[in-house]
Amino acid sequence: MLVNPTRGFHWSDAETRALLNIWGEHDVQTALDGNFRNSHVYRDVAARLGDMGYDRTPDQCRVRVKSLKRQYYQAKKASKRNGQYHKTFKFYEEMERILSSRSAATLESQDADGVAVEGDETMDGTEEDGDSIDQPQDSDMDGAGECSNADYPVKVEYPSYPIPVTVGSSNVPVKQSGIQNTSMASPSAGKTRRYKKRFTNLSLEKLMEKFLEQSLEAEEGFYRLEEQRLRAEDVRRETEHTRELHMLQMLGQMLAGLATPAPSPTPQPARNSQMTPSAASFFGTHSRQASQAEYANHGQQRAAPVIERSFTLGRAASGNMDNVLPLVKNTIPPLTSKKHKGQDGRIGVIGGCQEYTGAPYFAAISALKVGADLSHVFCTKDAASVIKSYSPELIVHPVLDSPNAVEEMEKWLPRLHSLVVGPGLGREDVLLKNAKAIIEKSKSRGIPVVIDADGLWLVAKEPSVIQGYQKGILTPNVMEFRRLYEAMVSNVSRIPVRAHHESLDSNDPRGCAQQLSIAMGNVTLLLKGEEDIITDGNMVLTCNQEGSGRRCGGQGDLLSGALGIFSHWAFSSSAEATKGMNPALLAAFGAASLTRQCNRQAFHKHGRSTITSDMIQEICIAFKKLFES
């Protein structure tokens, strides 16, 4: 328990006025102004009071002056609203006389510091060894500074301790102020001290969340950079591989030129040194019509001699034919700024029904990716909106099942360069009938026609729809080939097919393909399998470009779409560019090579997960590697 000897003593009016007279003297005010060490001043004031017969300590004098100043400023501030308020303070005139004599600069600086207004008068500076300037007035003293309990000369108080008050998220010790009990409360007495605003720190959860977000962003950036690095590595590896293959090919050509060729054996004549009718037609001794007539006279069909052409990127091809791939390159039109839209190819796809919407999309988008300018899809009304949603690049016509479907599609034939019939066509009689009519219209205009999938079902039922049309190309798989062979050759036993997914495993699959082509009137045939066999009845090409073991649905649609644009380029090329070779063979060979290369590249990236969409994404790189390198 602490005893404060400066409080609780009664000051009479005479004693107070004596204090004010001494405190208001010029030398005392001069000593107090701007002096923060003022204990010696109040010791002098107490000594002068002692000379006048009043025994007071310096601290009692200082506290009494502070109390009078506080009451004066409260009365002065209140008198601005009520002119009679200052009459309640009996020493107002004495305080007014003393304080008004001070310089205006001193008073302004005091008001700016908020001393008088807030009741914390520090006009005399900061006292040393004294109480705080905001020490509250005693509760037992009235407005005139007189003690109501004169029987108790000394008041015992407990010291004030700082009480922790939560400000924001931090605990700041704030000293609790006392309650002032004055007769006339100042308007500013109820104001609380304003503390400086502090911004709270982020919570641990927020910090962890922010840290995780930054970690994810950094991880995604790392994956992007790693993916770019892997792509650059693949491009570098492929470039080195292509360069090595080119060097090996040049070396092989040099060695072949140095070697002495062995004389080829003389072909043994068949049947008493006479060629078969098909062989005679191939080597030029008889015309094609004569050979077919002799086939009819003999009552049997014999396979014509086969010139086998094997092709693998970077490996020398067998046989004495020129390389086929450069001829395919010759048919590809160059890209120039002088061309207009549609000049490099406008392709039409006949197919697409309610059950099958992906096949016509794959065929049409593949044609665009290979280099066509426009792709049209003629489908049923139910499939149109679905196919449109796949890509905005396609022009979709929902007319295939309409009553006037043939007339609607015939209007577009003059604008098309080639036609792909069959992807997603379905086997409804109405759709097959309309497709047949469109094929007939296209034949009359000389438009190349590629038939695949359900279009081959139509050909097996009605072979005359395409038979003998030299710009027609059929792309059957093993089962579709078996169906066509049964319809045209009627010798199914010669086609050894063990299962639907297996390729032809025969000593003479090329001969079977050539027989079917001849029976179809020398229509170009592309038999898909482990090796793609391409024949027009006179010549057989084998494309064994490296692919993969993955056979996903839609791969044949990619082939038919690419073949559609290749056929337009090939038939539009000059005889000098094709070296006199059948343009349909070149188109089929180019499309087969491109499809196999896309399959290989996609499988290298995706493995067993490879789908047709992955292969379509590889068309650009595969095309550059095969035809632009």
What order do the helices and strands come in, and which of them pair?
Blueprint: E1 2-3, H1 13-23, H2 26-32, H3 39-51, H4 58-79, H5 92-100, H6 104-112, H7 115-118, E2 156-157, E3 162-167, E4 170-175, H8 204-258, H9 270-273, H10 277-283, H11 288-298, E5 310-311, H12 324-331, E6 346-350, H13 358-370, E7 374-379, H14 381-390, E8 395-398, H15 405-410, E9 418-421, H16 429-445, E10 449-451, H17 454-461, E11 472-474, H18 478-488, H19 509-519, E12 524-527, E13 532-535, E14 540-543, H20 555-572, H21 575-578, H22 583-606, H23 612-617, H24 619-627
Parallel strand pairs: 5-14, 6-7, 6-9, 7-8, 9-10, 10-11, 11-12
Antiparallel strand pairs: 1-2, 3-4, 12-13, 13-14
Helix pairs in contact: 3-4, 10-11, 12-22, 13-20, 17-18, 18-19, 20-22, 22-24
Biased composition (Acidic residues): 118-143
EC number: 4.2.1.93
GO biological process, one term: nicotinamide nucleotide metabolic process
Outline the structure in words:
The protein has helices spanning 13-23, 26-32, 39-51, 58-79, 92-100, 104-112, 115-118, 204-258, 270-273, 277-283, 288-298, 324-331, 358-370, 381-390, 405-410, 429-445, 454-461, 478-488, 509-519, 555-572, 575-578, 583-606, 612-617, 619-627, and strands spanning 2-3, 156-157, 162-167, 170-175, 310-311, 346-350, 374-379, 395-398, 418-421, 449-451, 472-474, 524-527, 532-535, 540-543. The two termini are 102 Å apart. The chain is α/β, with parallel strands linked by helices. Helix 12 crosses helix 22. It is built from 24 helices and 14 strands. The chain has a ten-stranded mixed sheet, sandwiched between helices. Strands 1-2 form a two-stranded antiparallel ribbon. Strands 3-4 form a two-stranded antiparallel ribbon.
